[in-house]
Amino acid sequence: xELPKTYDPSAVEPKWxxxxxxxxxFHAVPNPEKKPFCIMxxxxxxxxxxxxxxxxxxxxxxxxxRWRRMQGYxxxxxxxxxxxSIATEVKIVEKMASEGLTKAMxxxxxxxxxxxxWRAEYGGTIVRQSRAxxxxxxxxxxRFTMDEGCSRAVLDVFMRLYNKGLIYRGHRIVNxxxxxxxxxxxxEVEFEEQQGHLWHIRYDAPDKSYSVTVATTRPETMLGDLAxxxxxxxxxxxxxxxxxxxxxxxxxxxxxxxDTYCEMEFGTGAVKITPSHDPNDFExxxxxxxxxxxxxxxxxxxxxxxxxxxxxxxxxxxxxxxxALEASGQLVKTEGxxxxxxxxxxxxxxxxxxxxKQWFVSMKPLAERAIAAVxxxxxRFVPERMEHTFxxxxxxxxxxxxSRQLWWGHRIPAYYCDCGxxxxxxxxxxxxxxxxxxxxQDADVLDTWFSSGxxxxxxxxxxxxxxELEYFYPNTMLVAGTDLIFFWIARMIVFxxxxxxxxxxxxxxxxxxxxxxxxxxxxxxxGNGIDPLEVIEKYGADSxxxxxxxxxxxxxxxxxxxEKVESARNFCNKLYNAxxxxxxxxxxxxxxxxxxxxxDSLGTAERWILTRLQEVIEQITAxxxxxxxxxxxxxxxxxxxxxxxxWYIELTKPALQGDGAGNTLAVLLYVFRQCLxxxxxxxPFITEELYQALPGAEATxxxxxxxxxxxxxxxxxxxxxxxxVMELVRxxxxxxxxxxxxxAQKIExxxxxxxxxxxxxLGVHIQRxxxxxxxxxxxxxxxxxxAIHIIVNGAEAYLPLASLVDMEKERARAEKERARxxxxxxxxxxxxxxxxxxxxxxPAVVEEERRKLGALLxxxxxxxxxxxxxxxxE
Length: 874
Fold this sequence. Notes:
Elements: H1 9-22, E1 36-40, H2 52-70, E2 74-78, E3 80-81, H3 85-98, H4 103-122, H5 125-132, E4 143-144, H6 148-163, E5 167-177, E6 182-184, E7 189-204, E8 211-216, E9 227-230, E10 244-247, E11 252-258, E12 270-273, H7 279-288, H8 314-328, E13 331-344, E14 352-361, H9 363-375, E15 380-382, H10 385-395, E16 400-401, E17 403-404, E18 414-417, E19 422-424, E20 439-441, E21 445-446, H11 448-452, H12 455-458, H13 467-472, E22 475-481, H14 484-500, E23 505-511, E24 514-515, H15 532-539, H16 541-549, E25 558-559, H17 562-588, H18 604-625, H19 629-655, H20 661-679, H21 684-692, H22 716-738, E26 747-752, H23 756-760, H24 763-770, E27 772-778, E28 788-792, E29 795-799, H25 807-833, H26 835-840, H27 843-869
Parallel strand pairs: 1-2, 3-4, 9-11, 15-23, 22-23, 24-25, 26-27
Antiparallel strand pairs: 5-6, 5-14, 7-8, 7-13, 9-12, 10-11, 14-16, 17-21, 18-19, 18-20, 26-29, 28-29
């Protein structure tokens, strides 16, 4: 396959994706001959279009899937979409409003027809766009939370929990969105800091003999007050506990109750109790038998129980109530107050607490099992700090309100009869089983997260025991944003344990939030969102993927900078040019593949690059095993750009012109092929393009074997010599630059080393790479007044440039180098003196630190001796 002069991702990427998908390379089936690897794609909403958050989520999932696939696992990355009840219904209602229609005007069936038509038209957009990222998901297994199989699983689990008494219907305080007109779970409430007011209101005794002052941020709720509560041990109120006060403006007598919920140190110590409009007050009201008094409609307006304020919007009522309290003299004072306000996660309007008859899941018994499983290590959170977040949430969890006052979603399988009986069943009954009367189905649908919580097993065929369910459940891991730990992850763990008897996955790897270059969260309001498809069009998907993954540790937020994508594009070009150079050498030697020669036929440079390759294979694999995609990606980048392209390709150029060209080319091909394989999970498109340009390529790189380190290709002594030569070259080049020696001017180099004989065989590399007239090798340091002295690990070099050397500058350089060595020695000694480091670090790491310290001490000794010999030290 020919490689054009320049790399064009816009031509390469669609070509390869089409081939991969049509060839079935993404497809996975139960295979007893292989270990399973399964990861579920967090299902994006059908309302969505691809944004950077999806790119951040999907890229690591694809990296893990491609890597495990290459390791020989039967790797399934199962994709799908979520019906997203609230978000989708809002979109459809908005579209209907533009046509002058409402839900009430067309009815439920006609509305659902529109919803399914909307899903057919727009629901696949994000799925199609995900392909542009290179996502190797098994699209043949794509699922939808409301498809037939997933819907059957939802009903089955609902029945299972209902029959066990874990799902119930009752009047409870819920989070209510007056805009979306539906209940919300606690996880669906987002808190934002808002500047408001704290109004202090006086409640007088019927005979005015005493009074109590309370404070509230929501004076409109006082219309529903049923008591004032004080702490039973609060001496200020001991004489009025059990007595009554008059509710201002409503002239209703309410009791003063004693309850430990009150904090004596906070404000006046007295609290107004509104059981129908505050979750804590609801509990206090239940303890004291206060009953309920709801004063607000579901649309946020005051109802008929609100007296003179009936019909007003909640905010208009607030203003009117404050004015009335001022007029009556019962508004004691008003203070500015910064507080957290609950808002709807979809429409972002302030929610209300309302008592409503809803369906709930009893969470305590389910949470206890999940807590125990996580504490026992059945699920690992990466990073570990997320385990604390999970446990704190689960240990303080409340019952989950699962009913939503919507039409789009899984309709609750409960049927009501006028006789008062409720029938919960999988299949709609013809008549009431108790009295044969007519039935009507519950109008509400289930919370979207109920069906999403079943995703790890509903997508594999549950409730049927399919081969896929038996093979791929539990899933191997999950990759998700930190914001999903309450919405989704906690519920999957709960449902997995309750329904399947096992946790749904062994590991949860969290992504942080991608922010803009200034560190701000990307949002429509700020106008700082970035379209990943535009970035892909400009730079290619490989460049975007690599830029998103590197530079941020797991679970931490990162910033998007276009320069990072541009840098990744430059890396692609570097890789491409290396491939073109290798292709050119292959064609010169007949175009055939070359087998790796035996060790005796390998030169020092070849032994060095092969040794480095084994090291980097081990490092990258270890980082991937530890879920550190950033470090793994950086290692392969450094190896390809630095060790392979900048050094090894340069080192091969003389050899490729000589008799041993075939051996050198064989190593070039071997190392480059493994470079492409190591990089493939990160940059799938360009690695496939270049892999196919090499002789002997398999059908696809994505099914080729992941590299494994080979001890027979480690040559420690040769690699050390080559590293010494490279250090010498770098140091000599730096010295030339410091002395401003013209590039064309040749210099003399004398190398001193106890390994001089072996190093002399590499003199040709030093000579060519530093433009030396000659390079000599001796065992002992000569007397060479005025020469520049260079010290590296394993050797010294003398550059007789006396006529070009400013001795004062040379003194400063020598002092700077000595100070550097002393600093490095102090750091190493400090590390080795640290008992914690010695105790926790692997023995090999400790030994390597000791070796480095020995080498640094040796270098310092030589540096001091040389300063003395040149008269640079007094």
